[in-house]
Design brief:
Distance between the termini: 46 Å
Amino acid sequence: MKKDMFFMNIAFQEACIAFHKNEIPIGAVMIHNNFVIAKAHNLTEKSKNITAHAEIIVLNLASHYLEKKYMTECTLYVTIEPCVMCAGALFLSRMGRLVYGASNHSNLGFLGYGIRLHPKTTFSSGIMEQQCKLLMKKFFLSIRRKKKKIK
């Protein structure tokens, strides 16, 4: 649990970076043998690329670092429950373990669609859940305020 908090805090820091860049504040970090091998945050707005989710970026970075496509010995920490696209990539990567902070209540999370991860992937949630939820709520409230000012 202490280790999960430590690594989730790194993912949360990435989410905060995304927040300040006006990106949806989701951060991710990939761990291999208790070392951070990749970390990222959402970059869909800046890159104008709908696939530039934190999880996808981290999977790519980790794959290059390890020089392999399967992440069976890795743990991915992500602040929010992965979407269907990211869950599909995690399935194909044969992720060893997934840890996410808060559920994705916008109906975009993989569990809401009944999507399953690879049979050998274990996952848990709720690490820094309140902080992750609050950051998302703060982001979307600020977006709504900006839209009201424009009108």
